[in-house]
Amino acid sequence: MVKDILTSRPALDTREVDEAWWDSLLMEEERWFPQDMPAQSDMNGTLSDQHVDWEKVQQAYMVDDVVEAEAYGYNQGGILVRNSVLQGFVPLSHLVATTDAMMRGELPPNWDAIQDPEVVQPILSAYVGRRLRLKIIECEPERGRIVLSERSAQCEPGRRTRLLNSLQPGQIISGQVTNITRFGVFIDLGGLEGLIHISELSWGRVQHPSDVVQMGEELKVHVIRVDRENNRVALSLKRMRPNPWEDVEQRYQVGQIISVQITCVVSFGAFARVEEGLDGLIHVSEMPHNGGAPKPWKIVHEGEIVQARIVHIDAARQRMGLSLLLD
Questions:
Q1: CA 6 to CA 45: how far, in whole Å?
Q2: Can you list the alpha helix ranges (DSSP code H) found in 72-144?
Q3: Which one, of 82, 192, 182, 64, lies nearest residue 128 by Cα?
Q4: Per-residue pLDDT of the chain (327 residues; tens, 9 = 90+)
Q5: Which of 105, 192, 294, 319 is the most exposed, having the fewest neighbouring CB atoms within 10 Å of its CB?
Q6: Is there a common fold for 159-240 and 248-323?
Q7: Backbone angles phi, psi at 27, to 5 degrees
Q8: CB–CB of 10/285 below 8 Å?
Q9: Domain topology for 248-323
Q10: What are the DSSP E strand ranges found in 141-256?
């Protein structure tokens, strides 16, 4: 486990980047997706085929059509919606009000990591009873699962399909940050949302995506992978810049004394920024002490500039070891 924590998240192959992030995303949504979605608001029954016209639902999903449905309930993860042919779930991250609240600073960037229901309850409760324009973004008849998005419905029908057909891996495109979660960033590409996994935000270590991007920010991004079957686009921000690890062993040498900025203090040491996209670890054993075990938080502080000696460089694994013991 410690070894995983120490990595700078080297680039994954394109399939791993896309699928790993979508697995994370779906796990987050699955945590709140209702296991029982009855036709009645008492929520005592179970979803069955008589409540959903799967043929019409799949047709709307395939052609990227806008559907209207009423919000009749919610949980901490989103709202429950229904109409005459479907019942589904709209995750909090896909509500227009969530994006607006983040843009106004009323919802913190790390809202998805906060366990306090009161943080999002005002947003969710305000939807109940409203009729919404939505698009279906996940349709799984075998699991009785329909996931919808209010944000996606802001673009005309068919826009998502046209964009998916035009995008190619390696392409550079522009988009706007519409949502920030602890595992990545949603980018609106003009009718289709792409996803930047946290590992694709920077060549260096990222504590939280909100440290790298801001809500509403316009970005140029690199298309890693386009999955037309599942309507998914994996994007990268870091690939817009040269990889500083490629020539790190030519620019830095073991034993060299350099200035670094402390970015994160942990129990086993501290991470330090050498340059943009290049981070090193000062292990607790490389910190000064007077006989007892060093306490990193008493020795260095986030944001502090310190002198450090390079003790190890592993370009292939994107790791650099640093020491505060300069002699």
A1: 47
A2: 96-103, 121-125
A3: 82
A4: 333 333 334 444 444 444 444 444 554 554 545 554 443 333 322 344 447 899 999 999 988 899 999 999 998 788 999 999 999 999 888 899 988 888 787 877 666 665 566 778 888 999 999 999 999 988 888 888 899 999 888 888 788 888 888 999 999 999 999 888 888 998 989 888 899 999 999 998 888 898 899 888 999 999 999 988 878 899 999 999 999 999 999 999 999 999 999 999 999 999 999 998 999 999 999 999 877 778 899 999 999 999 999 999 999 999 999 999 998
A5: 105
A6: yes
A7: -65, -40
A8: no
A9: OB fold (Dihydrolipoamide Acetyltransferase, E2P) (2.40.50)
A10: 145-149, 172-181, 184-188, 193-197, 218-227, 232-236
Superfamily name with CATH number, domain 159-240: Nucleic acid-binding proteins (2.40.50.140)
